[in-house]
Amino acid sequence: MNNDVKPPRWIERLIDNLSPSDLAEEIRGDLYETFELDVARHSLRAAKRNYVLNGIGFLFKRFFWRTGSVVQSNSLAMINNYFMMAWRSMLKDKTFYAINIFGLSVGLACALLIGSYIYSELTYDNYPKNADDIYRVEIRVLGNGIWVDYSNVDSVSVRGWQMLIRR
Amino acid sequence: MSKGVYLGELEELVLLMVALLGDEAYGVSITEQLQAQAGRKITLSATHAVLHRLEEKGFVKSKMGGASAERGGRRKRMFRITAYGKNTLEELRNTRNSIWSLISKPSLS
């Protein structure tokens, strides 16, 4: 077997780190064997995809291995339950949830845009008299074939610019 | 079936596969056989979870087998059905058979 035909490394590492040490060996062995069977039967791509799916399956099953000795805290179990219920009701009413989440995200995006607009409006000084008549002069210069914007214009370059216009 | 012991549907199937495979029962072979014999496609992790549950309940026992090259040098955990597991399966079958014999043929059609 050549070197390219190898399962994804990151899944192996995840399983090594997360699974109880007495189980890691058999799991990785079984995964590897299935991977080679898949390579022989289907394709390398399918085998890799299967490997990832199976590996993630094991990560989910992690919670079943620790039955008995470790007592999970009650509030943690409660929060787990909330997430599980939310997920299941989402799977039940997909259209409703899609509309709901879409609406929420549009609303949130609008709020953020309005917020940033107001923030930029508030960054202008308005304490001088006739603040509405204050303008910022910018200059755009073509040099070496590139247009460059300057946000402030000193008197010299203003003079140069006027000369340029006069011509 | 004795009181307080429950064998789920998938657990029963997996236990049957362990019995069928004899000395060659481990995660991959059981998953393969489940698909070949019963047409059930389940993930490897599901098989493992069921096997560990069966072991907790005392229906199977396991030990680590020898390493082999096709698994990248890693050992596999071999499962064997216990006498208790065998008895439970037989009891299940007997219970079912006796109920089936009570169902009269006309009522099925």
Describe the protein:
Chain A is built from six helices and two strands, in the order αααααββα. Chain A is mainly α and 167 residues long. A two-stranded antiparallel ribbon of chain A has the order 1-2. In chain A, α1 runs parallel beside α3 and α2 runs antiparallel to α3. The relative contact order of chain A is 0.05. Chain B is mainly alpha-helical. Chain B has a two-stranded antiparallel sheet with strand order 1-2. Chain B is elongated. The mean pLDDT of chain B is 84. Chains A and B meet through α2 and α3 of A and α2 and α3 of B.
Largest sheet report of chain B: 2 strands, antiparallel
How would you classify the helix and strand content of chain B by structural class? mainly alpha
Q: What helical percentage do the residues of chain A reach?
A: 55-70%
SSE sequence of chain A, one letter per element: HHHHHEEH
Main sheet record of chain A: 2 strands, antiparallel
Rounded average pLDDT of chain B: 84
Order of helices and strands of chain B: HHHEEHH
Radius of gyration of chain B in whole Å, from Cα? 16 Å
Name the beta content range of chain A: 5-15%
Unreliable spans of chain A are none
User: What is the residue-averaged pLDDT of chain A?
Assistant: 80
Contiguous uncertain segments of 5+ residues of chain B: none
Structural class of chain A: mainly alpha
The overall strand count of chain B is 2
Largest interface: A-B, 22 and 22 residues
Strand order across the biggest sheet of chain B? 1-2
**Oligomer status:** heterodimer
| Sheet with most strands: strand arrangement of chain A | 1-2
Rough outline of chain A: elongated
